[in-house]
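task queued by scheduler; priority normal; single chain, no ligands, no partner chains; default sampling; output format set to structure tokens
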Amino acid sequence: MSGHSKWATIKRAKAKTDATRGKVFTKIIREITTAAKIGGADPAGNPRLRLVIDKAKAANMPNDNIKRAIDRAAGPDAAAMEELTYEGYGPAGVAVIIECMTDNKNRTLGDVRTVFSKGGGNLGSSGCVSYLFKKLGTIFFDKSKVDADALSMEAIDAGAEDIKLDDNSVEIITSQEKFEQVRDTLKSKGYEPENAEVTMMPSMTVALSTEDARKAMNLVEKLEELDDVQAVHSNFDIPDELV
């Protein structure tokens, strides 16, 4: 899990910069509209919509934008979005999973395949790497702002599956089903997370050289820049000097 934690640290830092760009809001709006269309416009009865709204608020999306995205799901101009997942291999054979939302799967497949080809990777068949990942909740805290021991005990009592500590952060791992329960319990105890999400977490990571890690990071970033890509997951470990 250490590799996941280091890569997640870089992605969170990058997300703070990306949040200033309109493309981030566009992708979140697409998620909100799709979630509302599938599960209904009431967040209380739609866990998926609740999670996306939390994601929108974490990115400082205005409430009016969130409401419009939900309302759009019931409107006649709501595009029929298809959810697709692609799997493949990056530099040095690392596993990559790409989650997409699109109204044109031929365009999306072509774009993803092109990025893989240019980035030193290969698009694989369905199931080729997904067995290496599990959907879990992850809740990050700045270690300098919390009592790590006390937080860990509270998290375990709330139903957390695992705790990961490094020099800068405390990472609480939960099952997908208990993610909201653990996060909300910790918030009620006064612990404010730096980041909290349900994500695809690797069961094992692959240690890369600095050069291969740079190539893998570049591949992931190029995939994330595609309009139809919502999230990218990989299992590579990053040398400390890159973090």
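post-processing summary
- Strands lie at 82-89, 95-102, 122-123, 133-142, 162-165, 169-175, 195-202, 206-207, 229-234, 236-237.
- The first helix runs from residue 2 to 18.
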